[in-house]
Amino acid sequence: MPALATGAGHEPGLYELLAALPSQLQPHVNCSEDNTFLQDMFGERSLHSLVKIHERLQHYEESKPVPVLEGAAPLARVVSDELEGKSASQDVKELLKLLANPHVKSLLSVHDAVAQKKYDPELPPLPEDIDDDEDSVKIIRLVKNKEPLGATIRRDESTGAIIVARIMKGGAADRSGLIHVGDELKEVNGIPVDDKKPEEIIRILAQSQGAITFKVVPGAKEEASIKEPQMFVKALFDYDPKDDSTIPCKEAGLAFKKGCILQIMSQDDATWWQAKHEGDTNPRAGLIPSKQFQERRLAFQRPVTTVSSLRSSTRRSSGFRRSFRLSRRDRKTTKSMYEAKKSEIYDMADVPTYEEVVPYRRQRGDKHRLVVLVGPTGVGLSELKKKLLISDPQHFSVTIPHTSRPKKNQETDGVDYHFISKQLFDTDIHNNKFIEYGEYKGNYYGTSLDSIRSILSKKKVCLLDVQPHLIKHLRTAEFKPFVVFVKPPTVDRLRETRKKTQIISGKDDKDSTKPFTEEDFQEMVNMAQTMETQYSHLFEMVIVNDDLDVAFSELQLALKKVETETHWIPVSWTHS
Ligand SMILES: Nc1ncnc2c1ncn2[C@@H]1O[C@H](COP(=O)(O)OP(=O)(O)OP(=O)(O)O)[C@@H](O)[C@H]1O
């Protein structure tokens, strides 16, 4: 048995353990033959060398060494060629002898393989029994590990042939570049597949490990692999392939949540796109329903009842938020300021599927994104706006509303309101100048788009609260709205947190206030639920206004990020 180093001073490793084993085992082995066998086995030089290498590798793993060069073998050849016959020096001769040594050569080539991370196995030679007549037949060998091949097959209805239906982008089959959609599969590992069902073939493939040989007839149109432009979309719905009975292969599906950013890898198939989660380093794509397909099936699923049922359930039939109220000194009429002639609060939002997005970062000097707050009545939008305004009055601002009512003595035009005539108001309504307007006691009140523009052009952040159905009108390159949904906590928490809160009663014009009622809380929660169901695809952030200070901090932080960090916005907002 060779002498074994014990690695004094080190933790006893595998090498030391191996060295100690024969003597440790000796008392337990009766037969001398067994003893010799064990001695021989544990004394085997190659085993010791392997273990030594293993220990060295483990030792170096933590220090993460990087190769000095990736081509040691070619360099050695160059050096040998240069030195050959040029010097009689003993050192040169020794070096040439060393470099010519097959072991050293192998060592250098292994070094290069490791440095270049060339670990793919060498493919075995092609079989010799290829039918010469079938000149259009391709023999393909792929080496399969645990990863699926990333291809689906189908039986052609008319010819009965087994056809490659789909190649998943970035999957093993795609990376090989050898199999294409439309190729006809003839054999797998020498087994003809003509008489087999697709499920049987899939089973054969699933059970295969290592090299798999495919015999295929290339499809008529072998598409040149064009590099797809990078396209990202924001998912506007939740998706789990496990719950989708229409997906051709559940395992190939990609699950995602509303708001996820997906990179679209292929739209070749009209029904099933291929996508990856943005930033996912795994190159393999998964199947997701295409926009058209999802729109079609969502259109069938959408309940039509929500519109009418909500209209009748909401007590605030006026339906207008009072986005101008913060600029008013007199808050007494705010509860019923607007009377809507026609409520379109709960109209049908567009069928939400995907929206193409691009990364965006506000440049110094650019206008700010419009900050839109939405939420049910009484949830605390005014309170949050007020806190933002107080926190930095130079940075945040709210719009000044227009009204057709006469100016009161203590009021200033352009400060409390923009006072305009009823006739002009009518014209402005006709010219779509208002994002929101309504009538109260024969006078108009409204928020004009120009009042938003005026704030943005001063490079201030404009805070606006509107009804959720209006968001879609603001979703333009000009406003780039950052929509925050402010949600109430549970009724229990509302009861707890709003114990001392007084709200303006709205029953009359006097300054009367009242506490929240149980009905108010319930309505707030119900309304929030409905808003979320119908419009959550338009919300970029949801804040639960449980503790006011916490909600405010969350909002403040989010707005800071929107101003300074890169985030995703619809691609349509980047070209005006
Ligand atoms: N987290 C909170 N905890 C306790 N009271 C709150 C909280 N948030 C808001 N409030 C109080 O609730 C009342 C209603 O808030 P606010 O006026 O901001 O609601 P709103 O969303 O603007 O609703 P509305 O459109 O009916 O005016 C205010 O008295 C406010 O101070």
TrEMBL record:
All copies of domain PDZ, residue ranges: 139-220
CDD domains reported for this sequence: GMPK, PDZ_MPP3-MPP4-MPP7-like
Cross-referenced Gene3D superfamilies: 2.30.42.10, L27 domain, P-loop containing nucleotide triphosphate hydrolases, SH3 Domains
SUPFAM superfamilies: L27 domain, P-loop containing nucleoside triphosphate hydrolases, PDZ domain-like, SH3-domain
Annotated InterPro entries: GK/Ca_channel_bsu, Guanylate_kin-like_dom, Guanylate_kinase_CS, L27_C, L27_dom, L27_dom_sf, MAGUK, P-loop_NTPase
Keyword set, alphabetical order: Cell junction, Membrane, Repeat, SH3 domain
Pfam families: Guanylate_kin, L27, PDZ
Family: Belongs to the MAGUK family.
Protein name: MAGUK p55 subfamily member 7
Encoding gene (name): mpp7a
